[in-house]
């Protein structure tokens, strides 16, 4: 066979092989692009799922935290009226039907009221999740800490606005989260101003379920998206449970607060309007109103003290929802308010 013909056949064969290789390469490129597109779509869908659940839960916890601080702040109003009553007895520890409330302590009540006022003053500029952080850690504890000392040595009570709020959050354990949370992201920046609040509610896992943008390699990107999906599902389940507890706890707290507000209004009428300031001159009904109000203050103080979220012992673990203590507090609230409503206070 002439050499030119052989070369021609060889070239043709090589050309066919080249076309085949090209087609195969094109198929692989398409598959890679499809995988990358699917990974990106899955990732974005997961982000939206997290954002939606996080927004819902954070709003619920913020509402609860704000309610707790508002209630604690009113204790100052109660204290002002109560301290006008002369010759009043010592209101001892309440222990009935499995409910235990401490002896009335006027100094603690006044202290927590002032602390709550400091925190309320800073909530406006503190960002989403701050009030929820107080509810998670127990607003009573947060209010007391607001009169304590920040890690810098500055008295929190001497600070104002957002500085006081941030100092208290740091004292409650949010400092480390705030320091490490600023640069974290899920694909794109999705936590924004809620970073600190979410960290306080959920724990270190919130900063660990994604390390940034997806890889530019298709297989790695899909693996990252799948890993993040598992963690996001876990976090969303946690947030859903926390939202349910927060809603139920707020209903219970609001019910007690309504009864407390009614009694406080009556007590103010007795002392400020009618001018009755000597316990010995109080009627049985006026004494009952006073005793019930003191009891409700103690109950609310304890309810606002409950930590709805306990910090994980693991560095990047998810926090623990404190179902046990929260449920006990709600059951106590039902028992006490039923006793008051039925006029069965011992």
Task: Annotate the secondary structure layout.
Layout: H1 3-82, E1 94-96, E2 99-101, H2 106-123, H3 130-137, H4 139-145, H5 161-181, H6 195-202, H7 218-273, H8 284-305, E3 309-310, E4 320-321, H9 323-341
Antiparallel strand pairs: 1-2, 3-4
Helix pairs in contact: 1-2, 1-3, 1-7, 1-8, 2-4, 2-5, 3-4, 3-5, 3-6, 5-6, 7-8, 7-9, 8-9
What do these coordinates show?
By secondary structure, the chain is an all-alpha fold. The protein has one domain. About 70% of the residues lie in helices and about 5% in strands. The strands form 2 sheets. A two-stranded antiparallel ribbon has the order 1-2. It has a two-stranded antiparallel sheet with strand order 3-4. Helix 1 packs across helix 3 and helix 1 runs parallel beside helix 7. The longest helix is centred in the N-terminal third of the chain and has 80 residues. The chain is elongated. The N and C termini lie far apart (about 120 Å). About 10% of the residues have low confidence.
The N- to C-terminal Cα distance equals 119 Å
Residues in helix, %: 55-70%
Gyration radius, rounded:
30 Å
- Taking pLDDT < 50 over at least 5 consecutive residues as the criterion, the unreliable ranges are 5-14, 174-195
Q: Tell me about the largest β-sheet.
A: 2 strands, antiparallel
Strands in their spatial order, largest beta sheet: 1-2
SSE order: HEEHHHHHHHEEH
Q: In percent, how much strand structure appears in the residues?
A: under 5%
Which outline best applies? elongated
Q: Classify the secondary structure makeup into a structural class.
A: mainly alpha
Task: Specify the number of helices.
Answer: 9
Mean pLDDT: 81
| DSSP strand count | 4
Tally of distinct domains: 1
């Amino acid at each position: 066979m002439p050499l030119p013909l052989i070369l021609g056949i060889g070239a043709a064969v090589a050309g066919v092989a080249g076309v085949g290789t090209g087609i195969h390469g094109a198929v692989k490129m398409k598959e890679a692009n499809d995988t990358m597109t699917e990974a990106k779509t899955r990732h974005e869908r997961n982000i939206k799922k997290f954002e939606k659940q996080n927004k819902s839960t954070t709003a619920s916890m913020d509402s609860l935290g704000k309610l707790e601080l508002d209630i604690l702040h009113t204790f100052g109003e109660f204290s002002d009226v109560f301290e006008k009553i002369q010759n009043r007895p010592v209101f001892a520890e309440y222990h009935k039907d499995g409910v235990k409330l401490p002896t009335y302590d006027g100094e603690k009540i006044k202290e927590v009221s002032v602390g709550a006022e400091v925190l309320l003053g800073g909530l406006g500029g503190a960002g989403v999740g701050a009030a929820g952080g107080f509810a998670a850690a127990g607003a009573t504890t947060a209010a007391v800490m607001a009169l304590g000392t920040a890690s810098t040595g500055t008295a929190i009570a001497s600070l104002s606005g957002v500085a006081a709020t941030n100092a208290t959050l740091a004292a409650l354990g949010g400092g480390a989260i705030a320091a490490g949370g600023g640069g974290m992201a899920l694909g794109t920046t999705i936590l924004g101003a809620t970073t600190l609040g979410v960290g306080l509610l959920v724990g270190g896992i919130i900063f660990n379920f994604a390390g940034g943008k997806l890889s530019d390699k298709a297989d790695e990107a899909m693996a990252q998206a799948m890993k993040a999906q598992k963690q996001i599902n876990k976090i969303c389940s946690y947030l859903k449970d926390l939202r349910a507890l927060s809603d139920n706890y707020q209903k219970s707290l609001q019910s007690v607060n309504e009864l407390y507000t009614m009694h406080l209004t009556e007590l103010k009428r007795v002392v400020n309007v009618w001018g009755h300031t000597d316990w010995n001159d109080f009627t049985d009904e006026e004494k009952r109103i006073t005793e019930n109000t003191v009891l409700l203050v103690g109950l609310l103080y304890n309810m606002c003290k409950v930590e709805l979220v306990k910090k994980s012992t693991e560095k990047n673990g998810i926090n623990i929802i404190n179902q046990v203590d929260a449920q006990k507090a709600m059951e106590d609230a039902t028992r006490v308010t039923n006793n008051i409503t039925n006029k069965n206070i011992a």
